[in-house]
């Protein structure tokens, strides 16, 4: 390779990468525009009585062990590989508050962006699901999730990532998730995300003294499929309020865009420089 050929190749490589990236982006945008409206869940903690019917329904739907439904004690209960949606009792500035937690099914999930083999997928209708036949067990999703949701079955010989999946098989049949259907108080509402946001704002406007004037999950971490209404600040319910409104995958996209340049352009440049220097050296020795 002479110097002219090297310079041509070095100049064309970034353009080729840029073009392929733009094409992939256009295809992704087209797919997103064609997607159906995301479904969501609105959890009104002012209506929750801590009966744990949602836990029982979730266990039955997913073949999990029957949950401990003894009287709840104050303190946060964490999700586990066998408990996808724990209900907790919190002592707050507004008194006792019951609240269930599960996967937030983010609009742009950090877990999906961190997964190296597409084992986690944001489906076109909203739920974030896990594919066992793709997972390699790296557990990057556990590190990436700002809500500490995915759990790994460390005690199993064939472990899996366990978390709420929004009952996608029920959704395909036109039924709501098991937890929403089982709630006797209507504390768990299911529907399109947009309509749930409208309903949340309607409730706040109708009873301004009943609620904090914020819908948690509306914009947090770029927006989530599961949203909360509460009489107390959600920070008192164990939820992070430091996530900002930017989707987590956007924090890393600049770095990821640079990876092809580092992997392809830099080796080409180094190879070219090596060949050019070798040619100059050979010419000088002659």
In total, the number of domains comes to 2
Helical proportion, percent range? 25-40%
Radius of gyration: 25 Å
- Element string (H = helix, E = strand): HEHEEHEEHEEHHEHEH
- Mean pLDDT, nearest integer? 83
End-to-end C-alpha gap: 19 Å
Molecular shape? elongated
CATH architecture of the largest domain: 2-Layer Sandwich
Structural class of the helix and strand makeup? alpha+beta
Strand order of the largest sheet: 8-1-9
Can you give a write-up of this model?
The chain is α+β, with helices and mostly antiparallel strands and 286 residues long. The chain has 2 domains: 42-246, Alpha-Beta Plaits; 252-277. It has 8 helices and 9 strands. The chain has helices at residues 3-34, 53-62, 110-114, 140-144, 168-172, 178-182, 193-206, 253-285, and strands at residues 39-44, 87-92, 95-100, 120-122, 128-130, 151-152, 161-162, 188-192, 226-229. The chain has a 3-stranded mixed sheet. Helix 1 packs antiparallel against helix 8. The longest helix is centred in the last third of the chain and has 33 residues, at 253-285. It is elongated.
């Amino acid at each position: 390779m002479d110097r002219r050929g090297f310079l041509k190749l070095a100049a064309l490589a970034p353009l080729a990468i840029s073009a392929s990236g733009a094409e992939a982006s256009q295809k992704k945008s087209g797919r997103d525009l064609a997607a159906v409206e995301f479904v969501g869940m609105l959890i009104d903690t002012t209506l929750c009585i801590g009966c744990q019917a949602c836990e029982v329904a979730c266990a039955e739907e997913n073949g999990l062990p029957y949950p401990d439904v003894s009287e709840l004690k104050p303190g946060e209960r964490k999700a586990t590989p066998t408990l996808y949606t724990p209900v907790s009792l919190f002592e707050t500035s507004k008194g006792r508050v019951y609240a269930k937690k599960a996967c937030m099914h983010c609009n742009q999930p950090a877990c999906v962006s961190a997964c190296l083999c597409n084992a986690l997928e944001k489906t076109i209708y909203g739920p974030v699901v896990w594919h066992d036949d793709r997972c390699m067990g790296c557990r990057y999703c556990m590190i990436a999730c700002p809500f500490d949701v995915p759990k790994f079955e460390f005690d199993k010989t064939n472990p899996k990532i366990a978390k709420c999946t929004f009952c996608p098989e029920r959704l395909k049949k036109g039924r709501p998730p098991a937890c929403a259907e089982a709630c006797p108080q209507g504390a768990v509402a299911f529907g399109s995300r947009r309509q749930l946001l409208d309903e949340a704002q309607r409730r706040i406007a109708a009873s301004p003294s009943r609620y904090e004037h914020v819908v948690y999950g509306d914009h947090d971490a770029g927006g989530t499929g599961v949203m909360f209404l509460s009489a107390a600040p959600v920070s008192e319910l164990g939820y992070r309020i430091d996530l900002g409104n930017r989707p987590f995958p956007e924090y890393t996209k600049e770095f990821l865009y640079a990876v092809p340049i580092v992997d392809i352009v830099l080796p080409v440049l180094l190879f070219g420089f090596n060949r050019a220097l070798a040619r100059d050296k050979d010419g000088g020795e002659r």
